[in-house]
From TrEMBL:
<keyword id="KW-0410">Iron transport</keyword>
<dbReference type="GO" id="GO:0015408">
    <property type="term" value="F:ABC-type ferric iron transporter activity"/>
</dbReference>
<dbReference type="InterPro" id="IPR003593">
    <property type="entry name" value="AAA+_ATPase"/>
</dbReference>
<keyword id="KW-0472">Membrane</keyword>
<feature type="domain" description="Mop">
    <location>
        <begin position="290"/>
        <end position="361"/>
    </location>
</feature>
<dbReference type="InterPro" id="IPR005116">
    <property type="entry name" value="Transp-assoc_OB_typ1"/>
</dbReference>
<dbReference type="InterPro" id="IPR003439">
    <property type="entry name" value="ABC_transporter-like_ATP-bd"/>
</dbReference>
<protein>
    <submittedName>
        <fullName>ABC transporter ATP-binding protein</fullName>
    </submittedName>
</protein>
<dbReference type="GO" id="GO:0016020">
    <property type="term" value="C:membrane"/>
</dbReference>
<dbReference type="Pfam" id="PF03459">
    <property type="entry name" value="TOBE"/>
</dbReference>
<dbReference type="InterPro" id="IPR027417">
    <property type="entry name" value="P-loop_NTPase"/>
</dbReference>
<keyword id="KW-0067">ATP-binding</keyword>
<dbReference type="GO" id="GO:0015689">
    <property type="term" value="P:molybdate ion transport"/>
</dbReference>
<feature type="domain" description="ABC transporter">
    <location>
        <begin position="1"/>
        <end position="237"/>
    </location>
</feature>
<keyword id="KW-1278">Translocase</keyword>
<dbReference type="GO" id="GO:0005524">
    <property type="term" value="F:ATP binding"/>
</dbReference>
<keyword id="KW-0547">Nucleotide-binding</keyword>
Length: 364
């Protein structure tokens, strides 16, 4: 098993990647972030496909990139495997030959390489496809073969670049379970780029969230997704998040109004903070409600989104209300939507009890 450590800067037209992260041997690290955050650039640096402007990359104790000395070990000599959205199998080779390619390139004899390839194809439940070429395989079957091919050279670090994104809904759960068995259970050091909270929860030990090329939060997967401190992490975790500064009794938003909530022990009054609460905690009313909720705001209904057994009502700011409600979500039953009898553009009131709102110190 091989861990890694990197601290690099790389200037791009849209942003500057400026990160310092590490993973222990056998750890699975999920990298989350919006499009353009630098996730694929980070993988390119790790794989040796991109040379940073400054910094270093170490795989275990072995330096593979060092801008001070000019070191840049090429990708095929790094001991890094890659599984991307598309399997990118060699179209002229059978599944067996695709998987055996890496070991053969390392100098392994043909018989030994094919023996390893057959073993891996069996482990990914693709032994029956050994003699088929990629054109004869479905998308899910190709990804299974591509996973076996990526593992065949026994890489010290595996890079997974949204490996489930291109699969259809029927193939995704089986592939996710396979990745868990092959990566997590085998203690393969892995970096997983994903937009899915479920993928991170099932596969990753720890999460790093990138925004504009920088790490804005990181920690154990369940902690980050249960207590998000950045808008992107909150969005994929399915939570509402409001930014501002901590104050007595809650959070003072950037546009002035207050959100009442319960502060964590690490929240310091005056520091940047976020208020987080689930859409299920938001009550929706036609008229301003009476009673106990301390957070009561007027909104404009922006969208109605059916989601399994609930309906998500998405808000935008009204002329009379605060700006922080823009994008706020409330989950209600279909019966409640029928009773409200409203369409996008209608005025509503959202109400949230202070006890449902958690105040956390903000991400970087």
């Amino acid at each position: 098993m091989t861990g890694f450590e990197l601290a690099v800067k790389l200037h791009r037209p849209e942003f500057t990647l400026d990160v310092a992260i590490a993973a222990e041997p056998g750890e699975v690290l999920a990298v989350l972030g919006p499009n353009g955050a630098g996730k694929s650039t980070l993988l390119g640096v790790l794989a040796g496909l991109l040379r940073p402007d400054s910094g270093y990359v170490r795989l275990g104790e072995r330096p593979v990139t060092d801008t001070t000395s000019g070191l840049l070990v090429p990708p095929h000599r790094r001991g890094v495997g890659l599984l991307a959205q598309q399997g990118l199998l060699f179209p002229h080779l059978t599944a067996l030959a695709n998987v055996a390619f890496g070991p053969r390139a390392q100098g392994m004899r043909k018989a030994a390489a094919e023996e390893r390839a057959r073993r891996l194809l069996a482990e990914v439940d693709a032994a029956e496809f050994a003699g088929r070429k990629p054109a004869k395989l479905s998308g899910g079957q190709q990804q299974r073969v591509a996973l076996a091919r990526a593992l065949a050279p026994e890489p010290g670090v595996m890079l997974l670049d949204e490996p489930l994104a291109a699969l259809d809904v029927d193939a995704t759960p089986a592939m996710r379970a396979l990745l868990r068995r092959m990566i997590r259970d085998a203690k393969q050091t892995t970096v997983l780029v994903t937009h899915s909270a479920l993928d991170a929860l099932v596969l990753a030990d720890r999460v790093v969230v990138l925004t504009a090329g920088r790490v804005v939060e990181q920690g154990p997967t369940r902690d980050v997704l249960a207590r998000p401190r950045s808008p992107f992490a909150a969005r994929i975790a399915g939570l509402n998040l409001v930014s501002g500064r901590a104050c007595e009794g809650g959070l003072r938003t950037d546009d002035g109004p207050m959100v009442f909530g319960r502060g964590d022990a690490d929240v310091v009054a005056g520091d940047r903070a976020v208020a987080v609460f689930p859409p299920s905690s938001v009550a929706v009313h036609i008229e301003r409600p009476d009673g106990s909720p301390r957070n009561v705001v007027p909104v404009v209904l922006a969208a109605i989104e059916p989601r399994a057994d609930v309906v998500r009502l998405r808000a935008s700011a009204s002329a009379e209300g605060p700006e922080w409600v823009d994008g706020l979500a409330a989950d209600v039953t279909p019966a409640a939507v029928a009773e409200l009898n409203v369409e996008p553009g209608a005025g509503l009131w959202f109400a949230v009890k202070a006890t449902e709102v958690a105040i956390h110190a903000a991400g970087g």
